[in-house]
Design goal:
Number of strands: 20
Distance between the termini: 25 Å
Order of helices and strands: HEEEEEEEEEEEEEEEEEEEEH
Shape: elongated
Structural class: alpha+beta
Radius of gyration: 27 Å
Low-confidence stretches: none
Helix content: 10-25%
Strand content: 25-35%
Largest sheet: 5 strands, antiparallel
Oligomer: single chain
Number of helices: 2
Length: 269
């Protein structure tokens, strides 16, 4: 049975190594705009049953307990935590945050084709054509597209997502576009693409698109960015727990190895 202990402890070390990578990614993105932390869910593996609970003994009395031996642990999934991050008031008119549920829609080229993807990051800027684009490494364009006139001197974005500008010499603001947000029945089922982007999957369900503050969608907060929801203290505690769990599993391997050495050194007298 010591050989089985080696395999079981190895599954524990493998699972803790996976969790360590997830925690490290959370900590690495602590300054990423609107980043959402992930947690690892584990599940026990199959069991080897030597004696099933409830079997009857020689007196036809059902046994209250059985004999089962677990074969280790595995990673069942990683789960996104979409809890609200804090707010940072930047004063930049194209810095936007979503208070509540919802995602910005942007157009991005992925795998050679342009498609609509989703993001909580609201660090927008303008491209050479005046279009509002996400300030990430690919400059994903806001969908539906909104262009800011070159002679605009002031930009105002309401909680309902209405984009208005005031041009040079004009006394009043004029409408130039409407921001639409999307929400999902199961946001945790979205596919992480990197670059602050998510893609819909069968697990997330199709997007429900509406103007901010409608159909359960949150509001837009202008001149503000949503911060990462990573709690450094919590992640450090998880880091320590992961390290200790890894060490305990390695200790199980050492104990099993010593047991096998003892058996191997037995001599007949």
């Amino acid at each position: 049975m010591a050989i089985q202990a080696l395999n079981t402890a190895a599954t524990g070390m493998k699972a803790m190594d996976f969790k360590l990578n997830v925690v490290a990614n959370n900590l690495a993105n602590i300054e990423t705009v609107a980043f959402k932390r992930s947690r690892v869910n584990f599940e026990d593996l199959l069991y080897r049953t030597f004696e099933q609970p409830g079997l009857r003994n020689g007196l036809e009395v059902p046994l209250p307990l059985g004999q089962q031996m677990g074969l280790g642990v595995g990673v069942s999934n990683t789960q996104l935590d979409f809890s609200q991050g804090g707010f940072d008031q930047t004063g930049a008119p194209l810095d936007l945050a979503i208070e509540g549920d919802g995602f910005f829609q942007v157009q991005a080229f992925l795998d050679g084709q342009e498609k609509t993807v989703y993001t909580r990051a609201g660090n927008f800027t303008q491209n050479a054509d005046g279009e509002i684009v996400l300030a990430n490494s690919i400059g994903a364009r806001l969908e539906p597209p909104i262009s800011i006139p070159q002679d605009a001197v002031e930009i105002a974005i309401s909680q309902q997502g209405l984009v208005q500008v005031r041009t040079q010499g004009a006394p009043a603001f004029q409408d130039v576009g409407q921001i639409e947000l999307a929400r999902f029945v199961n946001s945790a089922g979205l596919l992480q693409l990197g670059k602050n982007l998510f893609d819909e999957t069968d697990a997330s369900g199709p997007p429900i698109v509406a103007n901010p503050t409608q159909d359960g969608i949150g509001s837009v907060v202008s001149n503000t960015l949503e911060l990462s929801n990573v709690d450094p203290v919590r992640e450090l505690v998880e880091l320590i727990r992961t390290q200790r769990s890894f060490e305990l599993n390695s200790q199980s391997i050492q104990s099993a190895d010593e047991s096998l050495q003892t058996i191997n050194n037995l001599r007949r007298f």
